[in-house]
Amino acid sequence: MMLNSNHQRDEIPTVSVIIPTYNHAKYLSGALQSVINQSFTNWEAVIINNYSDDDTVEIVAKFNEPRFTLFNFRNEGVIAASRNEGLRHAKAPIIAFLDSDDIWYTDKLNRCLEEFKNGVDIVCHGENWVSTDSPPRAMFYGPVNRASHKNLLFRGNCISTSATLLRKDLLNQLGGFDEDQTFVTAEDYELWMRLSLSNSKIVFVDQLLGEYRRHDQNASSSVTRHLAAEIAVINVHIKFESTSLFNKFRARHRRAKAIYSAGRTEMRGGRNGLAILFFRQAILQSPFFLRTYVATILAMRNHLLGKSK
């Protein structure tokens, strides 16, 4: 494939950037501007708007950018459906995803596309995780051996959607993202699991080429929903591994880790009582996940000191 950065000479873009959005007007301008600022220019941006009731449509229109196309699409609360809708409209052979509250650095596309010249199928780069209450944190994903099905299943996700480019034909072969309601908030994790079974070649670029915005978990319901989605993915994909006693133990340990992570999120939100309940579930799932005991003590102390919301 020839990678040409002059979009004026190419009828077909090299990269389709799929950007699902819903009521993210205050972040969307930054995301779109970061695409316009790319040193590689032969791209299109396919913006899938879930009928936002803020200024989303006006913000896109103000850019007056011919490489932007906006489609209104009702996803019924399933972001996987929006990403698949974007895939149906995408013209390029390579797909990149960008969540509407994240941004890319200027050389992101140029650097990642270099890797496709070597016959790879998927490229993932590092990101800065940013939030309002803590300094940026550099996150590097992978490495390659962590992206095997077994390691994704038993050790957790190591790939970020806004940091990933992949071949469109590969995505189409797999049927895109799974729109099962039980996977909502973990649909990307489920896709990486299926990709790992396809013998696709993945490369991790050890450069920080974007920013992932971390939002505060304001509602305990969102923590519970994500936990249920993550465990649903684990329960589906455990079937692709052997049914040995060791794998059964590892599956229980993995579920305990997911429950523990939910408890830690509740602790960070000051909901120590709920955190204690999650830690108790984690211990029941796997009493050998030792970090849970320390976290339980800390949550109980905070709860007794009145540091809970």
Structure description:
This protein has eleven helices and nine strands. It is of the alpha/beta class. Strands 1, 2, 3, 4, 5, 6, 7, 8 and 9 form a nine-stranded mixed sheet that branches. Helix 2 links the parallel strand 2 and strand 3.
Helix and strand sequence:
EHEHEHEEHEEHEHHEHHHH
Radius of gyration: 20 Å
Number of helical segments with 4 or more residues: 11
* CATH class designation of the largest domain: Alpha Beta
Beta fraction:
15-25%
CATH topology grouping of the largest domain: Spore Coat Polysaccharide Biosynthesis Protein SpsA, Chain A
Count of beta strands: 9
Report the major sheet.
9 strands, mixed
Terminal CA distance reads: 55 Å
Count of separate structural domains = 2
Q: Helical amount among residues, as a percent range?
A: 40-55%
Key features?
globular; 2 domains; 43% helix; 9 strands; single chain; 309 residues; Spore Coat Polysaccharide Biosynthesis Protein SpsA, Chain A; alpha/beta
Topology, please?
Blueprint: E1 15-21, H1 25-36, E2 43-49, H2 56-63, E3 68-72, H3 79-89, E4 94-97, E5 103-104, H4 108-116, E6 122-131, E7 134-139, H5 149-155, E8 164-167, H6 168-174, H7 187-196, E9 202-213, H8 220-237, H9 245-268, H10 272-285, H11 291-304
Produce a short descriptive summary.
The protein has helices at 25-36, 56-63, 79-89, 108-116, 149-155, 168-174, 187-196, 220-237, 245-268, 272-285, 291-304, and strands at residues 15-21, 43-49, 68-72, 94-97, 103-104, 122-131, 134-139, 164-167, 202-213. It is an alpha/beta fold and 309 residues long.
